[in-house]
Amino acid sequence: MLFNSLLGQYAFITGGSKGIGFQISQELASRGCRITIIARSALQCQRSVEYLNKKYPIPKQKHNFLNYDLLKTSEVCMRIAKVYPEYKNANILVNCAGMTQKSLLLNTREQDIVNIYILNLIAPAILSRFFARSMIRQKHKNANILNISSMLAERYLPGTTAYSSSKMGLVRLTTTMSKEFMRHDNQLIRVNAILPGLINGYRYGKRCQLY
Ligand SMILES: NC(=O)c1ccc[n+]([C@@H]2O[C@H](COP(=O)([O-])OP(=O)(O)OC[C@H]3O[C@@H](n4cnc5c(N)ncnc54)[C@H](OP(=O)(O)O)[C@@H]3O)[C@@H](O)[C@H]2O)c1
């Protein structure tokens, strides 16, 4: 029996194919949780899922992925329901996919501003609503939503106007959802956010060499 076993639990992880999201995927899979990754690159998803299935196999099921661009928010729920109708068994949602900004507002393209808010804030709100509805309907006992925000939600750094404000919005989305989902027909959904600082060497250092 694993310590902190998540055997029989099921997590959808946006941005779970790389970086922080992939680390979370591995951590949950190592405890026996089934993982579905959502990200754009099918190739990267495939590599990450193969790694999970090889290193952290789960009985009778497989980790898998949905390659999807979360900027297309209007169709995401329909797509999940179509490809993975068993999404109803999911008791964990991790909203990790995010887009950064490295330019002063005056120099940031309008479309980039829109995309940052869609990916960092609107997609998590839409997915949280979708999964929370099914978590409540299915009366999951251990239902969790985890949002990956940023330390910049609480700090001022020029060149991050849209990014930091989207991450601040994500924190408020988290705290408000946690109140709304606290008790619903005696069901509880835990909603939390993590606010990481800059992860030095994450991409280029040793921890990046996952395969
Ligand atoms: N790294 C840091 O220092 C740091 C610090 C604080 C907060 N954060 C936050 O932590 C989260 C993860 O950051 P990271 O550095 O680990 O990112 P990363 O290595 O660039 O990975 C981003 C993940 O999101 C996916 N993704 C990106 N755009 C997407 C889209 N439009 N639709 C679907 N999936 C998409 C990527 O896959 P595809 O490219 O294949 O779509 C990938 O799986 C982000 O929300 C970021 O804001 C990071």
TrEMBL record:
Is NADP there in the keyword field?
yes
Q: Does the keyword Electron transport apply?
A: no
Instruction: Return the InterPro entries for the record.
Output: NAD(P)-bd_dom_sf, Sc_DH/Rdtase_CS, SDR_fam
Recorded hits in CDD domains, A to Z, give: SDR_c
Tell me, which GO biological process terms does this entry list? fatty acid biosynthetic process
Can you tell me which family this protein belongs to?
Belongs to the short-chain dehydrogenases/reductases (SDR) family.
Q: Which UniProt keywords apply?
A: Membrane, NADP, Oxidoreductase, Transmembrane, Transmembrane helix
Q: Organism, per UniProt?
A: Dekkera bruxellensis
Cross-referenced Gene3D superfamilies: NAD(P)-binding Rossmann-like Domain
Question: Which Pfam families does this entry report, sorted A to Z?
Answer: adh_short
| Superkingdom of origin | Eukaryota
Single GO molecular function: quinone binding
Q: What is this protein called?
A: DEBR0S5_05512g1_1
